[in-house]
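Reviewers of the previous submission asked for a worked example of the structure-prediction workflow described in the proposal, so we include one complete record here. The input consisted solely of the amino acid sequence. No template or homolog information was supplied to the procedure at any stage.
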Amino acid sequence: MKRSICLVTGIVALSLSGCIPGSDSSGGVPFAGGGFAESPVEQAKEDLAGRKGIDKGEIEVVKVEAVNWPDTSLGCPQPDMMYAQVITPGFRILLSYAGETYVYHSDRATRVVYCPGSPTWLR
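From that input alone, the workflow returned the following structure tokens.
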């Protein structure tokens, strides 16, 4: 029993090590507190470029911050939707285009959501 607990603890520790800010050295966009968030930032820029009909190179990344969202809504719950109540590590991404700011929230995997009602907390 003791051996299996140690094994499970070791596996969990190894799997979580990839979630620690700063563990990615791929040269992505730095976020507050260190580390990188290249993929979520690129997804956010692509979404904003599509919404505005512009080239994503025209979009400035103002700031990226690591966040632990309280559930899988990523801080942007939609009406009539249910979300798993689990801590979800991710990023808060602030983009700028033509003098306007745009807030995106993401997890650390594949989900990036535009959050228009979110305050622009990092001006």
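Residues 42 and 56 are 9 Å apart (CA to CA). We consider this example representative of the routine output the project will generate in years two and three.
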